[in-house]
């Protein structure tokens, strides 16, 4: 599915920010987090005019429906086009090589929102699909069939905070949002917008704090408000993109933190992240070796207290465990970000 969106006019604010480093999201990151490297999961979502340097790493995939504000692509009246393409970013995990992989993406009833029960699609399209695993299996030698999805040429870029804050992000303003992006009511694209907003406005899991951030500046503010300014930002890194294959956990699994802020990329016409913080979370760096010789360094998040999750959540139905009994883990897609204390 793709969005087909006509240009929206954000010229004055966009071009002002793009040409003034003192106002750019990248400058804000550096001012708030001067010792924290920006992962490529973030730099790939910056407007080209904001990037002072381009990295060559290949650790970022394409998550969901994406927007690219492309340099030199001007709409009528000098406006900057916000062009939206479709993608299938995420992590696909399944246990049998002959199974039909099912992408478990980020959106309403996504596996990363623990209040929701698994959908019929998640449960029955392929019973062999596994996104979650147990913490006790997070060790050298464990084998998992994984697919870290391919990188797209079109990214959903961050809007500068003044622009993002000027656009409604509320279920009571959905019609206004659809109008601004020239999205036809009743279309699949309209449903994606509604679903993401609904997830962001949904109930909070007990023991967690969450916020959907619509700008990089807001992401930084949320992370630093929970963890302070002495933090690292990390994401899954994949050395070579490939189709699904068997990976083996290599030596060197490293526990990074016992509390973190995790930001999941959402499906939306511009970069929006669902960020949440929990003290009952362990973050790990996990080296992986693919059957084709490729290597990856994945970020795994393990939830040590699942007692307040929906008992019909996908993890429990797939792992055949009960809420609150054992730590439950999952790998993060390449375009998600984890903030951890240094």
TrEMBL record:
The keyword Hydrolase does not apply. Keywords: Signal. It comes from the Eukaryota. Residues 132-342 form the BURP domain. InterPro entries: BURP, BURP_dom. Residues 1-21 form the signal peptide. This is BURP domain-containing protein.
């Amino acid at each position: 599915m793709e969005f087909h969106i006509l240009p929206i006019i954000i010229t004055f604010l966009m071009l002002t920010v793009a040409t003034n480093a003192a106002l750019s999201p990248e400058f804000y990151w550096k001012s708030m987090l001067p010792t924290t490297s920006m992962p490529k999961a973030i730099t790939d979502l910056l407007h080209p005019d904001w990037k002072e340097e381009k990295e060559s790493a290949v650790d970022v995939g394409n998550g969901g429906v994406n927007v690219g504000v492309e340099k030199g692509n001007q709409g009528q009246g000098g406006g900057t086009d916000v062009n939206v393409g479709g993608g299938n970013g995420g992590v696909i995990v399944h246990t049998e090589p002959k199974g039909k992989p099912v992408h478990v993406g980020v959106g309403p009833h996504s596996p990363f929102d623990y209040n929701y029960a698994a959908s019929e699609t998640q449960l029955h399209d392929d019973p062999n699909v596994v996104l979650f695993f147990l913490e006790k299996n997070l060790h050298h030698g464990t084998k998992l069939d994984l697919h870290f999805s391919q990188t797209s040429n079109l990214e959903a870029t961050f809007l500068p905070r003044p622009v993002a804050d000027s656009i409604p992000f509320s279920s009571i303003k959905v019609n206004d949002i659809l109008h601004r992006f020239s999205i036809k009511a009743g279309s699949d694209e309209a449903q994606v917008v509604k679903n993401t907003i609904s997830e962001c406005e949904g109930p909070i899991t007990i023991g967690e704090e969450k916020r959907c951030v619509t700008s990089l500046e807001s992401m930084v503010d949320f992370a630093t408000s929970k963890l302070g300014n002495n933090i690292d930002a990390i994401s899954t890194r994949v050395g070579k993109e490939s189709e699904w294959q068997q990976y083996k956990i290599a030596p060197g699994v490293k526990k990074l933190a016992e509390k973190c802020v995790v930001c999941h990329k959402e499906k939306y016409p511009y970069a929006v992240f669902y960020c949440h913080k929990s003290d009952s979370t362990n973050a790990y760096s996990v080296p992986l070796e693919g059957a084709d010789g490729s290597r990856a360094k994945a970020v795994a998040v393990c939830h040590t207290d699942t007692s307040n999750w929906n008992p019909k959540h996908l993890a429990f139905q797939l792992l055949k465990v009960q809420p609150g009994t054992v730590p439950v883990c999952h790998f993060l897609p390449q375009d998600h970000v984890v903030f951890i204390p240094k």
